[in-house]
Design a protein that fits this description.
The structure is a homodimer.
Chain A: H1 2-6, H2 20-30, E1 42-47, H3 50-56, H4 65-68, E2 71-78, H5 80-88, H6 98-121, E3 125-129, H7 136-143, E4 149-158, H8 172-175, E5 176-178, H9 186-198, H10 200-208, H11 214-222, H12 225-241
The complex binds flavin mononucleotide (2 copies).
One flavin mononucleotide sits at the interface of chains B and A.
Amino acid sequence: MGSLKQRKTIRKYQQKDIPVDLLNDLLETAFRASTVGNMQTYSVVVTRDADRKGKLAPAHFNQPMVTAAPVVLTFCIDLNRFSKWCRQRQAEPGYNNFEWFVTGAVDALLAAQTFCVAAEEKGLGICYLGTTTYNPHLIIEALELPELVFPITTVTVGWPAEDPAQVDRLPLEAVVHEEVYHDYTPEDIDRLYAYKESLPENRQYVTENSKATLAQVFTDVRYTKKDAEAMSELLWNIMKKQGF
Amino acid sequence: MGSLKQRKTIRKYQQKDIPVDLLNDLLETAFRASTVGNMQTYSVVVTRDADRKGKLAPAHFNQPMVTAAPVVLTFCIDLNRFSKWCRQRQAEPGYNNFEWFVTGAVDALLAAQTFCVAAEEKGLGICYLGTTTYNPHLIIEALELPELVFPITTVTVGWPAEDPAQVDRLPLEAVVHEEVYHDYTPEDIDRLYAYKESLPENRQYVTENSKATLAQVFTDVRYTKKDAEAMSELLWNIMKKQGF
Ligand SMILES: Cc1cc2nc3c(=O)[nH]c(=O)nc-3n(C[C@H](O)[C@H](O)[C@H](O)COP(=O)(O)O)c2cc1C
Ligand SMILES: Cc1cc2nc3c(=O)[nH]c(=O)nc-3n(C[C@H](O)[C@H](O)[C@H](O)COP(=O)(O)O)c2cc1C
């Protein structure tokens, strides 16, 4: 399991396919992850076809991994299959609501991450795409997702064609709380973010973006309040439209 | 990685501690999981204290794992730490909304599942507790979670004191869709659920609950529409109350 500690996101891939047997083996492994009541409230859409990748790409703001990776996996919350089974068995399902949207998301994400761990163990490289929750409507259209199915994350997968350095993480004490949540004093924040802020690559990032602090690169450039508010409304509306 | 395919949930634990170094090592491994913009929008609360477990137990409907496991981990969406950092660096955060609730959930769940994989690799057993999203208000109180922190899942961890048989999964073709979502015909549903319905343990489960079908055990006993609707409203309200 040493590989888990060495892992890093891979965004450049060789032009080389992933054998169907290997992919299926990894997916089978992924579906051994814990799942609520053993209900498997998720589905995975596998995209290999170049045309289909082309349809998906705009939904991901044309991030190059979508068309360059041999395989793109869209992990979806799926209460459609389970509800269909219920109806066909004289049982009235009650899974078209927010609680099951969240529970289905948990289920789908545990499977997604197990897939990634297993794939990386086999030498594959992966990249998550957060754009999935920015443009869910475009993905729903491209992948023809019916009611009670919702795309929660996307993973691009392929054989690595780059070997980037590992990026930093916050110290353990920044993230772990003993017994109760210990809220952060200004001194805590300074101490816990000092290493991140000191890194040459992060300092350069601030300069490149003509900002005064690293935090401003996040709030003013990468993840703005305005965008988040628009996306929140869209996400909520599309969730409702999908029947939750 | 063979162990991933053999895994199963463990609900009975030996009365034996998990060394602090081992736990910290597993948590550090967990935090190597992919994380949005390298922001680590999560926190983990570690519960070892018997009194604190006693406070958490009712939130989990007194499932015995909470008090029996040496360690209980509550994985939380956390936009508090990041927002505090922003404010302290002359940056105006915009993470108090639904988009970041969902993104924080993705982040927290990838870390949770990486923890579980690493823990199982070391011989530990884990159990997820879905009750976290049924009673978030009780967990927020027990763990003193501030605004912009939300408990999304709980994992109990310990050295296994049982060795249950693996439970079934749907066939791969039930969950995987090539290129687009292929909706299920009644014949598909019959075929895909046939194995699950044929299992002696599942047939017994139907009889024990005096139901006509396995699906009815889910809809009428385990996960009812009425409960889900009440929990959906609560979950939404508590999410709002925590500032999202
Ligand atoms: C979101 C979620 C919630 C769960 N909630 C509980 C729970 O409250 N109690 C419990 O005993 N198991 C819980 N589990 C574990 C599942 O019951 C278990 O993963 C499933 O039955 C499959 O068994 P396996 O993990 O041994 O393959 C949960 C799992 C998930 C993913
Ligand atoms: C929810 C989520 C969304 C992400 N979205 C993107 C994305 O859209 N594009 C991208 O290149 N990387 C994306 N990533 C990958 C992160 O940028 C990456 O995990 C982080 O920078 C840490 O790097 P590492 O995984 O190499 O340790 C995402 C990761 C997560 C968990």
